[in-house]
Specification:
Shape: globular
Structural class: alpha/beta
Strand order of the largest sheet: 2-1-3-4-5-6-7
Strand content: 5-15%
Helix content: 25-40%
Number of domains: 2
Number of helices: 11
Order of helices and strands: EHEHEHEHHEHEEEHEHHHH
CATH class of the largest domain: Alpha Beta
Largest sheet: 7 strands, mixed
Radius of gyration: 20 Å
Number of strands: 9
Distance between the termini: 53 Å
CATH topology of the largest domain: Rossmann fold
Length: 302
């Protein structure tokens, strides 16, 4: 099947793939790693996939329309956020009208409000994928009847149907992101050496930080690790694909045997210090709120 995976444009410099969708003061633009993992899953299943990051490229609506006419997808998958939801549905409707494609939405907003999203503009969207959408969208693309696809809400005529949730997947089964659809130079963050790529070593989190939407809506409160060897293999793959990336730190991590490391909370301080000395890391970020909540509850404090 021909599948279009679209990160739709909204306002210029709008960042969709961070935990908070916004036009940041620093104009940070984060890689769409989740969408590119989906793209890789679809490609691995044999589908003809076109990924377009309209947000990072600040595409205009006419450019998206021209692209859709040329590619003519049979399925269009669009990422959504709360600030941009009406815009995102409008893009789905436009692509459906231009190409006749089935349309599916994914992301945090539709995971929170699936039925409401489908009813905003009846007929514009055929289905929404709740939570982790990698295998959900693969099932839709493979022709599985919508009534049998776990983890979706879908339109059955004028009626919204709510299918059972999809179990959390095994992250060690996932392919590397389909980075060949993007250029690292499209993404920037003043706190990182340019250009750079994002690498995800797991999904989910045991923390209950109230500001984090992803554990609540997308990836669950169970921390699921990839194998350390997979993480290093992805580093090596990234460096071959994009030799312009800064490589001195990556080389040292690989040479010193990162494949033996497994970062768990109780070991975090000691292990991070070891990696810091090995690799001359530029920055370390700690999430204290989750630990404070955990220990506060354990001690009976507020």
């Amino acid at each position: 099947m021909k599948v279009l995976v679209l990160n739709p444009p909204y306002v210029d410099d709008f960042c969709r793939s961070a935990r908070w969708a916004a036009k940041s003061r620093g104009r940070v633009q984060r890689h769409p790693d989740w969408l590119l993992i989906l793209t890789a899953v679809l490609e691995k299943a044999g589908h003809d996939v076109k990924f377009v990051d309209g947000a990072a490229l600040n595409m205009k609506k006419g450019e998206v329309e021209d692209m859709a006419r040329q590619f003519r997808p049979e399925l269009a998958v669009l990422h959504t956020t709360t600030p941009s939801i009406y815009n995102d549905i409008d893009y789905a409707k436009t692509i459906k009208n231009l190409t006749g494609a089935m349309t599916a939405l994914a992301g945090p907003h539709v995971s929170a409000l699936p039925a409401d999203t489908l009813l905003i503009d009846r007929g514009a969207v055929d289905a929404v994928a709740r939570g982790e959408y990698d295998y959900t969208i693969r099932d839709i693309a493979s022709g599985t009847s919508l009534s049998d696809v776990a983890g979706i809400d879908w339109m059955d005529g004028e009626t919204v149907r709510h299918n059972p949730d999809r179990p959390l997947l095994d992250v060690t089964e996932l392919p590397f992101p389909a980075w060949h659809h993007i250029r690292p130079e499209w993404y920037y963050d003043a706190g990182k050496k340019f250009p750079f790529l994002t690498l995800i070593s797991g999904r989910g989190c045991f923390g209950r930080c109230m500001f984090c939407r992803d554990t609540q809506l997308m990836y669950g409160r169970k921390l699921r690790y990839r194998e350390p060897a997979q993480v290093v293999d992805e580093m090596e793959y990234d460096m071959k694909l994009f030799p312009q990336l800064p490589k001195e730190r990556i080389d040292r991590l690989i040479d010193e045997g990162l494949k033996g490391f497994y970062l768990r909370p109780r070991q975090m301080a000691r292990m991070l210090l070891n990696i810091r000395s090995m690799a001359d890391l530029k920055r370390k970020l700690y999430g204290f709120k989750a630990f404070l909540n955990y220990f506060g509850k354990k001690k009976g404090t507020k």
